[in-house]
Amino acid sequence: MKRSYQTGSYLNYPIREVFSRIADLEYDGIEISAATGCGAFLPSVVTDGDTHLVRELSQSFHLPVVSYDCELITPSGWNFASESKSMRQRTVDYVHSAISVAEKLGARFVVVVAGRATYGVRKKNAWRWATEGLKDCAAYAEGKGIQLGLEHLTPLEGNVVMTLDDVLQMLEDVNSPGLVALLDTGHVGIMGESLADHVFQLGEKLGHIHVDDNDGTCDDHLPPGVAVLDIERGKLDTLTTLDWITDTSVDRKSWCYIKNPDYKSVNTLVDNLVDRVSKNGNLLLNIGPRPDGTIPDEQKKLLLGIGE
Predict the structure, then answer these.
(1) What's the rounded Cα separation, in Å, for the pair 269 and 213?
(2) CA atoms within 13 Å, Cβ hemisphere of 247
(3) Helical spans, DSSP H, in the chain
(4) Are residues 121 and 173 in the same domain?
(5) In terms of domains, do 125 and 170 share one?
(6) 3-class secondary structure for 74-137?
């Protein structure tokens, strides 16, 4: 699987710096967000010079442009599911222009959403309007050799296509090779659904994946480099420039103080440390103090042995 990164997290950065940072983080590709540079890549703003620069940066940093996210959000006035015919047409026109931008960027996908049924609008009507708009745009995208990636949203963002069943039904109703599913792992978590179900049921209809995590209540998106990859009682197999850490314990059986522990040897602990550090990792070594806070003599000897 190839990994790309969406540039929207670098809202205030110039595009050259964005490419440099994402390349340093060893990603395989890049997804251009219209919000990059505080909206500098919106279809109505981006210039041929901008798209040409992205193509040059893509080559020089070896980061192919995988997709273009036109930030089709309802508060900005874009809504396939609006009861307003003029807003629906404006949304179709906007996505057409986004597809043209994607073509200039060399992107394979354009990220789209079905929108939101506003107050007083029955979902079946909103669904019909969204289907009509997506059919139009999917046909236009297909003619350009591009696919639309339909992203399912959380209730905070939209209420037309939110669940796996919604995605499958919309793909069936639009029935176009120009429209595929975009799986957002964070949205799946918030909706309480199964990632495995999404992957297996979408099958070949799954064209693109947004990988992010959250606690199931808030749709958090952290830019790379903010967090540290944490592998509990595990390790990476190869050297990487990404910072990472292993959490492990001196005891094979427990993180806390127990009777009859199974302690690792000093040699094993040193081997673990050298292995992690040699791959740009860190080792967080846990010990288990007694209930009164004192450290058992056996654990002291292990810690002192590492230092020797």
Answers:
(1) 31
(2) 7
(3) 15-24, 36-39, 48-60, 85-105, 123-143, 164-174, 185-191, 195-202, 266-278, 297-307
(4) yes
(5) yes
(6) HHHCCCCCCCCHHHHHHHHHHHHHHHHHHHHHCCCEEEECCCCCCCCCCHHHHHHHHHHHHHHH
* CATH number (domain holding residue 60): 3.20.20.150
Number of other residues whose CB lies within 10 A of the CB of residue 273: 17
- 105 lies in some domain: yes
What does the alpha-carbon distance between residue 177 and residue 150 come to, in Å, rounded to a whole number?
Answer: 12
| Cβ atoms < 10 Å from Cβ of 91 | 27
Structural domains counted in the chain: 2
Please, which pLDDT band fits residue 73 given cuts at 50, 70 and 90? confident
Domain that holds residue 270: 229-307
**Per-residue pLDDT tens digits for 211-235:** 876 656 777 665 555 667 778 888 8
